[in-house]
Design goal:
Layout lengths: L1 H8 L8 H4 L8 H12 L17 H16 L1
């Protein structure tokens, strides 16, 4: 549900965590983070799988990752 999407969304790839996660950190402006968070709360992103919210920056990143996951599932 939305709570799990928010939980995964808050696990953003941070620069300080690079050495632990092996994933490069990214910078997401505060305004983009808040707008994306609001979109999740308002149900505007319910069509995307929960996995698409993990370790991404903002809404556009969620959409890109969802498309990648969809391609992987189709293959």
């Amino acid at each position: 549900g939305r709570a799990r999407r928010l939980q995964r969304f808050l696990a953003q790839p941070m620069f300080v965590a690079e050495q632990f996660t092996g994933q490069e950190g990214i910078y997401t402006p505060l305004e983009e983070t808040i707008a994306s968070f609001r979109a999740v709360i308002d149900g505007e992103m319910d069509q995307y799988p929960e996995q698409a919210f993990y370790m991404v920056g903002g809404r556009e990143d969620v959409e890109k990752k969802a498309a990648q996951l969809s391609k992987q599932d189709a293959a």
